UniProtKB/TrEMBL annotation:
It comes from Streptomyces jeddahensis. Residues 49-246 form the Xylose isomerase-like TIM barrel domain. Its EC number is 5.3.1.5. The keyword Manganese applies. InterPro entries: L-rhamnose_isomerase (IPR050337), Rhamnose_iso-rel (IPR013457), Xyl_isomerase-like_sf (IPR036237), Xyl_isomerase-like_TIM-brl (IPR013022). It comes from the Bacteria. PANTHER family: L-RHAMNOSE ISOMERASE (PTHR30268:SF0). This is Xylose isomerase. The lineage of its organism: Bacteria, Bacillati, Actinomycetota, Actinomycetes, Kitasatosporales.
Amino acid sequence: MTELAAVKAALKTQAVETPSWAYGNSGTRFKVFAQPGVPRNPREKLDDAAKVHEFTGVAPTVALHIPWDKVDDYGALAKHAEERGLKLGAINSNTFQDDDYKLGSICHPDAAVRRKAVDHLLECVDIMDATGSKDLKLWFADGTNYPGQDDVRERQDRLAEGLAEVYERLGDDQRMLLEYKFFEPAFYTTDVPDWGTAYAHCLKLGPKAQVVVDTGHHAPGTNIEFIVATLLREGKLGGFDFNSRFYADDDLMVGAADPFQLFRIMYEVVRGGGFTPDVAFMLDQCHNIEAKIPAIIRSVMNVQEATAKALLVDREALAAAQRSGDVLGANAVLMDAYNTDVRPLLREVREEMGLDADPIAAYLASGWAEKIAEERVGGQQAGWGA
Ligand code: PSV
Ligand code: MN
């Protein structure tokens, strides 16, 4: 196989998971702008996700968020997905939208609240059993706002205890992905603020616990690709929540704010052997002012472009330049790949997969947006928090 053929073959195996909540209405704490045709229930979210997969060919799974996607029959929901060529992906827990969680969930000072939070996580594993999902994605809003508010160290003990109980409940082929975020909604301390804390807990828990890197959850200037390289080296990179940030956790389209950073991350993924199904490539985004389905298609394409560029890096030339201390030469090898226009290559890949070369144009021409705007009237649109 030529090198280009190998790159194309790799791109055809790519899988980007889209989040159910990105199909619903969302906004900021100031305003949620409703859009016509937005899904009213989890099945309609899957119908939209199926369109993203139909036109990109590389978005075969959908992450659910519980309770936002709560249904009576998860087996039936999984079947609904399968009938549309999809599978259900990570189950995201929610321990941040209940009044009881004001002072935290599994780190809360009151054992009764901790019990409630752990029970919710265990319920999420039950749901995974029913949907066939492999990953439980955990993000905790836990933390404190004021120095002295709670015992920071004891909160870590409570966290470890709660996680251990959930870990024990995981099946052989199930994982727990622990997400970190440096601040918000807590502003003084956050109980899982960084990759080091997540890594320490995952290490203690065992091989089924891994770290998930949400690209929006870092302080400005953080070298995310270094974190990715380190976690991969330690066998602890479980996956990504991709999105873009300009300021904090903006949840904008991945690759929009800083496509170069996304390329650098994907290069470390490829370099570290992480371009495999063992690493979950998920989107975690909100489309507040742009049309949702084309925005998700665009996001998937942005990940594809960064991946294609990362795969095109001449690794031999790079290693040779690095070994000989050729600073500028090594940098040039990387930049050559980044500066390659991979859009023609991806158009070819899509055509070889039997797809339209231009997924967004094909979606816009499909009439789906008009159809859902006309049909989805009445009922309550899904939204962030519902
Ligand atoms: C938190 O900001 C987060 O990134 C977590 O992944 C949540 O599951 C997701 O957003 C949706 O609230
Ligand atoms: Mn996230």
